[in-house]
């Protein structure tokens, strides 16, 4: 079976974002798959015990192999990178 290049790219982007923005923090960025009732959705997740931000990249029906792109990986990554730079939980009041 061939390697899924989109999943590999999401994994690499998640590793890079974690290294760049979450070094001394509990937050981590993951390539994540969620299964809903009739759909499987894959994307990038920023997670720790208090934060859960998910940017979907693609989806498919449960019993099919054809993925539909929701947004490009670089677009999802740029949204998460903006969130990590401007984190509301780290705002100075």
Characterization of this structure:
The protein is of the alpha+beta class. The chain is 32% helix and 31% strand. The chain has two helices and four strands; from the N terminus they run αββββα. The chain has a four-stranded antiparallel sheet. Strand 2 and strand 3 form a beta hairpin. Helix 1 runs parallel beside helix 2 (73-85). It is elongated and about 40 Å long. The termini are far apart. The model has no long low-confidence stretch (mean pLDDT 91).
Key words describing this protein structure:
4 strands, four-stranded antiparallel beta sheet, alpha+beta, 2 helices
Mean pLDDT: 91
The major β-sheet equals: 4 strands, antiparallel
Number of helical stretches of at least 4 residues: 2
Q: What structural class is derived from the secondary structure elements? A: alpha+beta
Q: Spans with pLDDT under 50 lasting ≥5 residues?
A: none
* Element order: H for helix, E for strand: HEEEEH
Rg to the nearest angstrom?
14 Å
Helix content: 25-40%
- Overall number of strands: 4
| Strand portion | 25-35%
Taking strands numbered 1, 2, ... along the chain, how are they ordered across the largest sheet?
1-2-3-4
């Amino acid at each position: 079976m061939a390697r899924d290049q989109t999943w590999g790219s999401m994994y690499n982007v998640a590793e890079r974002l974690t290294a760049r923005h979450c070094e001394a923090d509990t937050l981590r960025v993951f390539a994540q798959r969620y299964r809903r009732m009739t759909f499987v959705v894959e994307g990038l997740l920023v997670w720790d015990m208090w934060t859960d931000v998910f940017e979907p990249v693609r989806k498919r029906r449960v019993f099919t192999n054809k993925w539909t792109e929701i947004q490009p990986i670089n677009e999802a990554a740029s949204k998460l990178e903006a969130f990590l730079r401007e984190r509301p939980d780290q705002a100075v009041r």
